[in-house]
Specification:
Distance between the termini: 37 Å
Structural class: mainly alpha
Shape: globular
Number of domains: 1
Number of strands: 0
Largest sheet: none
Oligomer: single chain
Length: 107
């Protein structure tokens, strides 16, 4: 758990900010009148899930590295990069996992 540093939390936060800004930009590109209030109301649950997934991924970085057999040496930027990606892409991974389970036949 030595990777849970202020720098890694800031990188995760920056990834989250970029994720939310990108989704606002994507929403504004549609030909609809943009309303920040409506956007927040419409995306509140997705935002909460995104934040929870980002923090969970940040906490589980050692386990993720172990499962994927990633060997990190001292000074390697794995945890910094992982922290940033944890904030930037959590919904991408959640959507992929949901598609896998939706596509699998029921038992």
């Amino acid at each position: 758990m030595k990777h849970l540093t202020l720098l890694n939390f800031l990188l995760c936060f920056n990834g989250l900010v970029i994720h939310f800004i990108y989704s606002v930009i994507k929403q504004k590109k549609q030909d609809l009148k943009f309303s920040m209030g409506f956007y927040i109301q419409d995306n509140a649950l997705q935002s909460i899930v995104t934040i929870i997934a980002a923090i969970s991924s940040l906490i589980m970085a050692d386990d993720i590295a172990r499962i994927m057999r990633i060997v990190t040496i001292d000074g390697a930027p794995f945890y910094s990069i992982h922290s940033f990606i944890s904030g930037l892409l959590p919904m991408f991974f959640i959507n992929k996992v949901m598609k896998i389970f939706k596509a699998s036949p029921e038992v």
